[in-house]
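Sorry, any thoughts here?
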Amino acid sequence: MEAIRPALATLRLSAPLRTYRPLYQCLHTSCARHATPLPHATIPGPPPGKPTPHPSDPLERVARKRRQAELVKQAQDVRTESAPSSKPKSLLKKRFWKDVVVKETPDGLQVFLDSRPVRTPSKEILTMPASKHQLATAVALEWDLLLSAQQALKTHYIPMTSLANRALDIETADAQGRTQVRDDILKVLMRYLHTDTLLCWAPEKVMNDTKQNGKTLRELQVETATPIIAYLTAHVWPGVEIKPILEADSIMPVEQPEFTLQVIQGWLAGLPAFELAGLERAVLASKSLLVSTRLIHEWGEAFADARKGSDAPRFGIEEAAEASSLEVRWQTHQWGEVEDTHDVEKEDLRRQLGSAVLLVSGDSS
């Protein structure tokens, strides 16, 4: 063994070395070439001016929407003319009624399509309280504007009918002793109180803070929220303390007192069905329980007697929309609006708040 060891060492050293192979493999086959920079295009004349943000004009938005609607109508006419047959292929694609009327019955107000009453999704006749003539007229107008029965399957064509159905579902569940429907609504509404838009104020000291009409964003928020909170703590929830969610020098949320939460939840639990449905719609639109409560208390038929002793100014749809969208208006005034976004959201907010007012109001409002 000792005799052949030098020979083995010689063989090991003379063996060819293995080529190095990487542990990965490239999947592409393109060659690595550097990009060739091109000279920038030169444009004669001075640079464009600085854009100046400004809110869009409502009349200009309406005119633009009308032009878009005319183009869509022209496209629909061309498509209809080129179709082989304009006859509806099913009963859902045509309107089977001619007249829509509101009739007073011993049970309440009902909407009839010729001789057929409008029904709820549960096949019950849609019957509204006898004092809500405005609501019944709005429901009848929705059905009178429909072009086919198929459109009635889409809730955005009949928003007031859907909202009235929601109120009747709550009323039916309460009558049958099913508390799950009301409890679910209360849970959602109380969740919005912890992040109420009216109580989310900007920090007191902000770097490079700007002013509009001589006031900072926080000063405008305090000025807007103070009369609403004062009205609620005096006429709706007497004795409660409502705190702003954000402190002047902190971003950590502040919890409302336990007594305040109990009083508000108890008040919500005792609301009539139509007022609760209207409040739910307003809260989902405005993201503010306080603003929605102020609006519903101002127009709700159930609170007509409570408003007699109040000397507060009228709180309507415009005031509620302005209070719940103050920060958005501040930002769009400073940076400008996004077309077909901010303007659409602004009008949709007023539409939804208006539907809530129409639902809760009545002859005594």
Notes: The radius of gyration is 33 Å. The first strand starts at residue 100 and ends at 105.
